[in-house]
Design a protein that fits this description.
Layout lengths: L3 E5 L15 H13 L4 E7 H4 L8 H16 L3 E8 L1 E2 L2 E3 L15 E3 L2 E3 L10 H18 L8 E5 L10 H18 L4 E4 L3 H4 L6 H5 L5 E4 L16 H13 L3 E6 L3 E2 L4 E7 L2 E9 H17 L4 E4 L35 H13 L19 H16 L2
Parallel strand pairs: 1-2, 1-15, 2-3, 5-6, 8-9, 10-11, 11-15, 12-14
Antiparallel strand pairs: 4-5, 6-7, 13-14
């Protein structure tokens, strides 16, 4: 398969509120920019409360607007990965009121019906009413768009273990199987599942080898700025290694579905922000340093035989959103874009735009990682050992 280049998309001026305030012209203009950046695939997110406001009701307006988005993509010859059950996004959880439990979340706040709440989701994986509702959403969307020519793949969810961790690995595996098979009943296009860095450096009960059985290809989300096992925040080997480790565990090809960093003009610095409910320090990386990191990371992803790379994110968010969740507290989340908040290109946008031409001078190669069968008995220790060995081999 040809190396896929793409981007994760939220509108610059709407972010997670775009389905509630849908603007077709806005999407047309921004998808045109995505096309101008020589990208192939756009990953979008079906915010759960916008598509399923009641447990037994699918929102027809949101479904129609999704159809408009797919039509816009078709006109520009772009492919789309729609992602279900959002769910977790940019440091908080976005859930319909009917999906809420009466207990607080240990780690993340929840945004529901216009309010921040200290409540977690019901058991997404085993509660019978939740499963019935989830199947309704999957069946409604996949049946409606099974003939759309622009669907590249369906993504089961985005880092759903941040919403709630399954009680056991078996429960996680059963749930992925159920959703995978429900999608396949309506549409035979590829299905994947948005797992992330935390699923390889700890056991959140979505073990890669289990997920792989019900994925047509695997995905990984990895960020060097978040990896405490990286040599530094600009370590270009973190993202490719995460893909290689995922492939070794799951024995299937891997798409780097999310990678990037918060990027600003001026010197690299750290700012007080949040990671879930906890205050933390996060890096904001200088634009030129980030561009060099991206060029090297893309080169390694291509050379190591990864399926492709979808950058996080299309644009920084406009200042008018900074007083809204999650950007009021998750300061770093404002700045992950290829575009600045005024719509101008960062140097990283030009790296992405020019990469297809540079690919012509690169060669693919097989790089293997041997993982222990009992990897998840001590995932962090195993990951660190494997990464150190990997770096030693890469550097001779």
């Amino acid at each position: 398969m040809e190396f896929i280049l793409g981007v994760n998309y939220w509108p610059r001026k709407k972010a997670m509120f775009w389905w509630k305030d849908f603007d077709q012209k806005e999407v047309e203009d921004e998808f045109q920019i995505i096309k101008e950046l020589n990208l192939d695939v756009v990953r979008i997110f079906l915010l759960w409360e916008d598509f399923q406001p009641k447990i037994d009701k699918i929102d027809e307006k949101s479904v129609k607007n999704l159809g408009k988005v797919l039509d816009i993509a078709n006109d520009l010859d772009l492919k789309v990965i729609p992602t279900f059950f959002i769910g977790h996004m940019s440091g908080i959880n976005w859930l319909p009121e009917w999906a809420l439990d009466n207990k607080p979340h240990e780690r993340f706040s929840t945004y529901s019906n216009g309010k921040i709440l200290d409540l977690r989701a019901k058991d997404i994986y085993e509660d019978e009413e939740m499963l019935k509702a989830e199947k309704l959403l999957i069946n409604s969307i996949t049946a409606e768009f099974r003939d759309s020519p622009v669907i590249f793949a369906w993504d089961i969810s985005n880092e759903i273990d941040n919403v709630r961790v399954p009680k056991t690995p078996e429960a996680g595996k059963r749930w992925v199987k159920l959703i995978y098979e429900t999608i396949k009943e309506n549409d035979n296009r590829p299905v994947t599942f948005g797992i992330h860095q935390e699923d390889i450096d700890r056991d959140k009960h979505f073990r890669v080898q289990d997920v792989a059985q019900f994925n047509d290809f695997l995905c990984m989300h990895a960020y060097s700025v978040y990896a405490d096992w990286a040599e530094n925040p600009l370590d270009p080997y973190v993202v490719p290694f995460a893909c290689l480790l995922t492939k070794a565990l799951g024995k299937k090809e891997v798409l780097m579905e999310e990678f990037g960093m918060p990027i600003v003009k001026g010197e690299t610095k750290r700012v007080e922000s949040y990671t879930g409910k906890e205050k933390a320090w996060h890096y904001l990386i200088n634009e030129e340093e980030a561009a060099k990191w991206l060029e090297e990371t893309l080169k390694l992803l291509y050379e190591f035989g990864v399926l492709g790379a979808l950058y996080w994110n299309f644009s920084d968010y406009h200042e008018s959103l900074w007083d809204k969740p999650p950007f009021d507290k998750e300061i770093h989340e404002r700045f992950f874009g290829l575009l600045r908040s005024d719509g101008s290109f960062k140097p990283t946008a030009l790296v992405i735009k020019n990469f297809k031409e540079k690919m012509k001078n690169l060669k693919r190669r097989e790089v293997f990682i041997e993982v222990p069968e009992n990897y998840y008995e001590n995932p962090k220790e195993n990951l660190v050992k494997l990464y150190r060995k990997f770096l030693k081999n890469m550097r001779g």
